Amino acid sequence: MELTVVNLEKKYKTKPVLKGISFTIEKGELIGLVGPNGAGKSTLMRSILGLEEIEKGQVTLNGYHPTDSNYFKYISFLPSDNYLYMQLSGYDHLAFVATIYEIPTSEIDAVIELIGIRSYVNQPVKSYSYGMRQHLLIALSILTKPAIILMDEPFNGLDPTSTIELKQLIRTLHGQGISIVVSTHNLDILEDLTSKIWFIKDGHLITDKLDPEQSTAFEIKYLYDGDIDQLLLTSGYDYELKKNSILTNPSTDIDVYLKWLLEHGVGIQAVTPVNRRLEEVYKEFYEV
Ligand SMILES: Nc1ncnc2c1ncn2[C@@H]1O[C@H](COP(=O)(O)OP(=O)(O)OP(=O)(O)O)[C@@H](O)[C@H]1O
User: Fold this and answer.
1) Which residues form a coiled coil (predicted)?
2) Which positions ≥6 away from 180 have C-beta within 8 Å?
3) Cβ(77)–Cβ(41) under 8 Å?
């Protein structure tokens, strides 16, 4: 599976929203898509899904374009809007999609088991909670065995239980080799799910903001009898003092810093890499 986007541009009337976006997603990648309100996340997803006309640029999935019906064999969408039929049951929805895609009934049952919706799948959707509806939408999105699923803010409105279950489900689908793109405003959830996080800013897609090489700080457990804060102030390096440990700034050369500490009588007990929090990167990048 390979999704390739080359120089994608999108305008609403005269307002440019996507300004030449290019990327490739390969089989089994789990990508988080981040950006403030109005940045263009939904527009990007809708364009990839063929829901927006592509005026400039190219989108290709396994060699097919969104103007070819074969394209839709490989991709599915978990929309942020609920488009379910209230009077119909979850099973009715699944059976409907199965008929269109000529999927055997046994596969509906397998999906019901995987998503864990057996106990309510025969009830009308109007009786479902928000989380139950979300589960049904996910069941629908995987029934067609897509190679890639785009999820637009799938955690919105979920309680902690459903959030944990959805995270687990995303991991399971990812473990099965499905590529997933998740857009969400919840940075903690995203950080927990993947280290591959893409940012949208000013119509551009930034894919290397969370380079692990650049984002690793270190936590140093130390032993020191004197006033450590006083000493570190003289070092010229940025740091954060925690209980019995020093958190370095990601730009600090750790070897040089450790040498400096030792030379100034600080005992080193342990040095542990700490990834920079996504929220910090976000704040810096979007100047929050
Ligand atoms: N159908 C449309 N017609 C005109 N403008 C639109 C349309 N859809 C989106 N826009 C505009 O395009 C920009 C990007 O919107 P989009 O919904 O893609 O952002 P988003 O990153 O998904 O935002 P959010 O996080 O709020 O969902 C916004 O300025 C929005 O007002």
Assistant:
1) none
2) 29, 30, 31, 148, 149, 150, 151, 170, 173, 174
3) no
DSSP state of 249: P
> Going by CA atoms, what residue is nearest to atom 9 of ligand 1?
43
Structure tokens at 250: 């990601």
Ligand 1: distance of its center to the CA of 62 in Å? 28
- Rounded to 10°, the helix 130-143/90-101 angle is 20
- Work out which ligand 1 atom sits closest to the CA atom of 39: 21
By percentage, how much of the chain surpasses pLDDT 70?
Answer: 98
Domains of the chain, each with CATH number or no CATH = 2-206 (3.40.50.300), 212-285 (3.30.70)
CB 1 within 8 A of CB 148: yes
Q: What pLDDT digit, counting tens, does each position of 56-72 carry?
A: 999 999 999 999 999 99
End-to-end CA distance of the chain: 37
The overall average pLDDT reported for the chain is 91
Write down how long the chain is. 288
Pick from 11, 18, 37 the residue to mutate for probing ligand 1's pocket: most ligand atoms within 8 Å of its CB. Answer: 37
Closest C-alpha residue for ligand 1 atom 10: 12
Whole-angstrom CA distances from 225 to 207, 228, 233, 267, 270 are: 45, 8, 16, 10, 17
CA separation for the pair 26, 1 (Å, rounded): 6
Tens of pLDDT along 9-46? 999 989 999 999 999 999 999 999 999 999 999 999 99
pTM over 0.80: yes
Q: Best mutation site among 14, 18, 33, 43 for ligand 1, i.e. most ligand atoms within 8 A of its Cβ?
A: 43
